[in-house]
C-alpha cells in the first residue's frame, strides 16, 4: 500500500467503512503531532477530565 500523501510505501494503515488509507512513517508522525496539538483533543481531555489526580 502507498502513502496517502506521497509515493512512499505505507507503514501504517487505517480503515473505516471499508475504506483503507495508508501513511508512511513520516506522514504518520506528522498527523499524530497535529492531532496531539488540536483543539478537539484538548476539549475531549477537558470533557473527560483526563488530567485529574486523586
From TrEMBL:
Recorded superkingdom: Archaea
InterPro entries: DUF6757 (IPR046645)
Pfam families: DUF6757 (PF20542)
Protein name as catalogued: DUF6757 family protein
Highest classification ranks of the organism: Archaea, Methanobacteriati, Methanobacteriota, Stenosarchaea group, Halobacteria
Amino acid at each position: 500500500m502507498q502513502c496517502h500523501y506521497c509515493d512512499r510505501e505505507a507503514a501504517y494503515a487505517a480503515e473505516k467503512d471499508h475504506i483503507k488509507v495508508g501513511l508512511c512513517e513520516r506522514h504518520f508522525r506528522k498527523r499524530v503531532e497535529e492531532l496531539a496539538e488540536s483543539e478537539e483533543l484538548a476539549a475531549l481531555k477537558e470533557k473527560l477530565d483526563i488530567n485529574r489526580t486523586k
